[in-house]
Amino acid sequence: VSGPLPAANARAIKSIPGGGPVSESTSQETSSDLNERRLLQITEMYAGYRKKHFPSVDDIDAPDALKMTQQDSSKVVFVDVRSPQETAVSTIPGAASEEAFLRDLRAGAIDNTTAIVYCTIGMRSGKFVSQHAEDGKAHGVRLLNLRGSVLAWTHAGGDLVRPSDKSPTKDVHVYAKPWDLARVDYTPHFLAKKGFVQACVDRIARWCA
Q1: Distance between CA atoms of 50 and 46, rounded to whole angstroms?
Q2: pLDDT per position as a tens digit, 80-99
């Protein structure tokens, strides 16, 4: 499950200060090219976060996580550690909140399962897995960080639903502009949309997405 991250291809890349790489785009870029570029950015940014903040955490990529749910969803628990504002837009079907997961874990209600933890790109969820991995082991629960988290999930073809009515949706909260990297057919939502507030959010977000 955990292993080497895909190597970057030969596309030109520059850095976001305090964040991750951004590749150059062209006006003639197709949707397929743009998706490929976005997925590369997600991979590179996650690799940087992992190396700096949680190098020993077990993780899983989105296609493998999707396969696990298709093989035996009863043995997989998704955990969404994002804020209520983010999860109100959409979640992975059946995902538990951070609070609900910890409650069920301590009560022994999800023993002997695999918990796949996610946020926007994997930073917050990586820290959560690092903090609670040993708690999980005590109950036979293996915690895995979802590489690239909900952004990578959209590229893998995973479903998202509205928590309010469980209906399928292609709306996704991407936290802030530096993480507007979901598949191009998804509609991004942000913490703030414009002006000074957005500038502040972008600056802070580079450290905590």
Answers
A1: 6
A2: 999 999 999 999 999 999 99
